[in-house]
User: Fold this.
Amino acid sequence: MLLLEGYEVHAALSADDALRVLDARPVDAMIVDLVLPDVSGLDFIRLVRERNASRNTPVAVVTGNYFTDDTFGEELKALRVEVRYKPLWLEDLTKLAHELLNDA
Assistant:
């Protein structure tokens, strides 16, 4: 959807793939699902924040899990992560991308 709106997108199917993308080039923002095949999205974001090059990259998490505990929300806040809930429609996704890029 973001490609159709003119954004440059680098997709990754796993956390390992995403880390390779980050090693190859800087990104302006990231949208991460909480459910990844190799690690949780939260663990991936922790790895991202440990890297100097992506420590301050704007990140949003997208999840269909509406039932998270307070500790989870507090950690996302400490990691400076925006949270959005599925489903995201085109308008929601482009608004999120715009917000992330304007915060960069």
Q: What stands out?
A: The chain has one domain: 15-103. Residues 15-103 form a domain with the Rossmann fold fold (CATH 3.40.50.2300). DSSP finds four helices and three strands in the chain. The CA atoms of residues 33 and 62 lie 5 Å apart.
